[in-house]
Amino acid sequence: MVSAAALVDLLGPWADGADPLNEQLAAALARAIDLGLLPPGTRLPAERELARELALSRTTIVAAYDRLRLAGLARSRQGSGTRVAARRPGLSQPYLAPVDSMDSDAVLMPSASSAPPIGLLTPLVDDAIELTIGALPAGSIVAEAMAAAVRDDLPTLLLDSGYDPFGLPTLRERIATHLVRMGIPTEPDQVLVTSGAQQALHLIGSQLGGPGSSIVMENPSYIGAIDAFRTTGNRLIPIPVDGDGGRVEVIGLLGSSAPVRLVYVIPTFQNPTGAVMPESRRRDLARLAGESDFHIVEDLTPDLTLGVDSPPPIAAFDPGDRVITVGSLSKLAWGGLRVGWVRAPRSIIDRLVAGKIVADHSSSLVTQAIGARVFDRLDEVAARSREAGAERRAVLMAALAERLPDWTWTEPKGGLSLWVRLPGADAVAFSRLAATLGVVVRPGPLASPDGGFRDHIRIAYGSEPARLVDGVERLAAAWAAYTPASRSSRPSLAVSV
Predict the structure, then answer these.
(1) How far, in Å, CA of 169 to CA of 385, rounded?
(2) CATH of domain 140-376
(3) Are residues 163 and 366 in contact, defined by beta-carbon separation less than 8 angstroms?
(4) Are 315 and 325 in contact (CB under 8 A)?
(5) What are residue 142's phi and psi, to 5 degrees?
(6) Could you list the mean pLDDT of each consecutive 10-residue stretch along the chain, which spans 497 residues?
(7) Residues near 155 by beta carbon (within 8 Å), at least 6 away in sequence
(8) Chain-centroid distance, C-alpha 320
(9) Residue 353 three-state SS
(10) Where are the domains of the chain?
(11) Interior CA angle at 113 toward 59 and 475, to 5°?
(12) What residues have CB less than 8 Å from 321, skipping those under 6 apart?
């Protein structure tokens, strides 16, 4: 639930138009929903609480909520209050009537009736540069693996029914061998193959968590994980991130008021900051999981080093089967394969596979056969990806330093994204403006379980170097257009959702 005080901070100045107050409030709430700042399932404050915080009549709040319900943006149920409605796949949410008089930042953005949702941010110009995907194009090894799988594996696969919810045995064996190399004792029956790491996280959120459950997450964190856990009804509890990753000692301060079932961390090349959690902190987290009876969800997806020059995974320090390890070939090889996995005790694998069967019965056996062949040359694939990632990172940082010297960041130790602070700016407003000029980035609140980091953006650098340079040029143009508004008398507000 978002508190009334936090919601007021999130909305900022909204009552500056000529329309009735209930219409202006409804429009402001609709914009926040469309920006992704009020995700589906978020419980809005009670009418009386919000009326007291805004110094308005309860009738005004009731009328504003009614407008949201009529627009399909909210739903109410007796005893559970008013919640943001889930989006229907394939459809964008409608906006309410635009406010006639917009604030000083808004004049630089498209009108509310024409602007895209910030969470999806459809580019508004042709040939837009999307700096949102932290993944690389497929290389020649993936192409060779495809050809070999079709030539040598497909005839045998076609004799099978095509359904194997646990995953292709040869692939599960290779994943287990890979994890053993990284220091995690693993048998093939401890591995579930998923359609990418995203499905793995969704299964964990739904089968091991769900409504009434709490999941601790680093703040900021991977946008896809936030979406997966939120849409499966979990309460998200943020812990801060420093230069060594998630501050795990904060978990011990949560107390019994927020019983923790799962803790999600990205220990190596944390997304989006690129931080690497030191071994001592990994050991502390594994110990705390045993003492406090929760499971750790360790996402190794961004680790392109295969454990080289970084500490062993947390699961290597776990004597009590408290760690659930998630991985994927998306960063290592190619996102188009959609090959991910979960390593966990067999009892947990059995629970997850029940959800897998409901979701899709089985991942494609053909792509799994390709994935198995990629594992045979994984060291080569990872070396190529590390080299390409380092080149792109250097190009992006050099271009930003030259064209946007006011922006600041800490050079990541790895991964494929840069976490950048914009001085004195509202990253949500800036991101929307940038989209109108043909470059798409993700504003900080989307990467924050509590909607914070409104002065940050995430820039992914999976694109070709030339596209990265062009993207920075467009960001510089957007910054030049935005900067005058950022000097207005209205302060930038931190978001707390």
Answers:
(1) 26
(2) 3.40.640.10
(3) no
(4) yes
(5) -65, -45
(6) 85 76 88 79 89 83 88 83 68 35 29 36 66 93 97 95 96 98 96 97 95 92 94 91 94 72 96 97 96 96 86 95 97 95 97 95 96 96 94 98 97 95 93 92 93 94 96 97 53 29
(7) none
(8) 29
(9) helix
(10) 4-89, 129-134+380-486, 140-376
(11) 120
(12) 344, 345
Q: What is the DSSP letter of 310?
A: S
Can you read off the two tokens belonging to residue 370? 């390709």
For domain 129-134+380-486, give its CATH number from 3.40.1190.20, 3.90.1150.10, 3.40.50.300, 3.40.50.720.
Answer: 3.90.1150.10
Peptide bond into 185 cis (omega under 30): no
Q: How far is CA 479 from the centre of its chain?
A: 25
Q: Which among 250, 365, 383 is positioned nearest to 305, based on CA atoms?
A: 383
What phi and psi values does residue 496 have, to the nearest 5 degrees?
-135, 105
Q: Using the CB atoms, write b or e for 258-297: b if 16+ within 10 Å.
A: eebbbbbbbbbbbbbbbbbbeeebbbbbbbbbeeeebbbb
C-alpha–C-alpha distance, residues 417 and 396, integer Å = 10
Query: What is the dotted CATH code of the domain comprising 4-89?
Result: 1.10.10.10
